[in-house]
Write a structure and sequence with these properties.
The protein is an alpha+beta fold and about 325 residues long. Helix content is about 65%, strand content about 10%.
Length: about 325
Amino acid sequence: MIRHRISRRLMTLAYIASTGLMTGYTAWRYAMGDYVTLFTPLFMVLVLLAALLLHLCRSPSPYLPRMILLIATYVTMLAAIWQPPDISLVWLGLPLAATFLLLPLWTALSINILLAPVWWFTPLHSAPPSWVMVFLATALLLALPRWEHARRRALLRATDPHDSECDAFHIDALRERLQSECQRAIVLNRRLAVLVIHLPQMDMAGEQFGLRAQLALLEILCHEVRLQCRDYDVLGRAATTTLWLTLPHTSESGALLVRERLTRGLSRHVLVETGQLEARIAACLLHQNESVDQFIKRLENRADVLAAPPDTA
């Protein structure tokens, strides 16, 4: 969630900076008395302002403002290189940088490779042949930071046990932890309880209000679990709308007590988008002589029952 906020702030700065640069470029053209070519950058200022407003107002498609910014960059570059007598290769770096900043790595590489032959038919074809090597070298240099960032993110996903959207374990780490707790309970002859928590408002919140409403629901649930449960109780996300709360050394009465506290605590929270927070919680206990796979299958079946509509559950 913190990474999402930082990324959004960086994109806001990018839109503001691009609008400021285009405004400065328009003012420079006006000051030079180049009124013939003034229309294109002036129109692009309005287009970039529209992209900034779409970004600030949270457009239904997060890629729409980015595509507007990218198209505005290409239009400005094409208008500049078709204006003799001063044609500079520096203009090619502008769409290259914008493509790698606004699009995923492989999409940006594909677009630049496909458009490379197109630049040969522009007025830049009079440039020396070495510009092709300069173009390719610049594209590779711009791709390196994105490739390194993608590599680090993949490494983080492989080593970080937490879910990317909330303070809970992701499904793989959850299954490993649940398996170890089941084996410990069987060996030491101790009780083990798991609360299956289903949030029925998650899908509706995502469809009508987007990711932000879903993250708010998950944040409230994780906050209540931290308040109501012990430090060694494990919360994990088994599916998009389902979480499992593992309660070691807990009897059936203790699990029901935790369920009651969680239900009461969650009902106190009211969101503007979804109203009073709703949660369906069921308690499952590990039976004697029950294998780990059988117990996990039973948890999955209980989650399916909770996710079913009330008239069919």
